[in-house]
Amino acid sequence: MKYIIRLITLLARKGLALLVILGLLTTAFISAMNLSQLFILINDGMELRANTILGKNEGENLSKYFDQTFLDGDTLLQHSVYDPYYKIKGSSYSLKIQSLWAWPWQTRVTAVAQERVTLEGELKTDYQTAEQLASPEKFPAPAWENYVYDIILEKRENGSWIIREIRPVEALPASTARPAV
Predict the structure, then answer these.
(1) Is the pLDDT of residue 165 over 60?
(2) Is the peptide bond before 84 cis (omega within 30 degrees of 0)?
(3) Which of 2.60.40, 3.10.450, 3.30.60, 1.25.40 would CATH assign to domain 2-171?
(4) What is the model's pTM?
(5) Residue 71 burial by CB count (10 A; 0-12/13-18/19+): exposed, middle or buried?
(6) Residue of 96, 94, 52 lying closest to 76 (CA atoms)
(7) Cα gap 80→52, rounded to integer Å
(8) Annotated domain spans of the chain
């Protein structure tokens, strides 16, 4: 009887240890899966949004990344200062995610990201005044306003994530580098 109790105790300890290890591995796997999906969603979505504002694409795929309520209220998308007035010859996009974490049970996550866009472009001749047309100088596109953003993401019922909101936290100084064309 003494040996049976020892055997049961040993098996219970080993079983408990195995369950704890499996639980930790499952948590790590799901967290890594969520983080990779969030990382790709933020990078691709924010770059697509910037390219849409610059007039490089129509933005038909924005709803894959952003909540429709956000898209309807995004003033930069609705009233771009670049499209159709400026011809963007070249641009460079950079997004640096400063903090991002998602536990498996979380349905709402906040990421902090630093967005920088440098661009080269000029006012289209269709939108120049008579004085501007007579002038030999070029009229450059306004500089992009670079920011650090809080990006709010939510998990949908199907398990995928979507960007619900972008909040500017801090303005960054304008970069002086010109993009390679």
Answers:
(1) yes
(2) yes
(3) 3.10.450
(4) 0.83
(5) middle
(6) 52
(7) 9
(8) 2-171
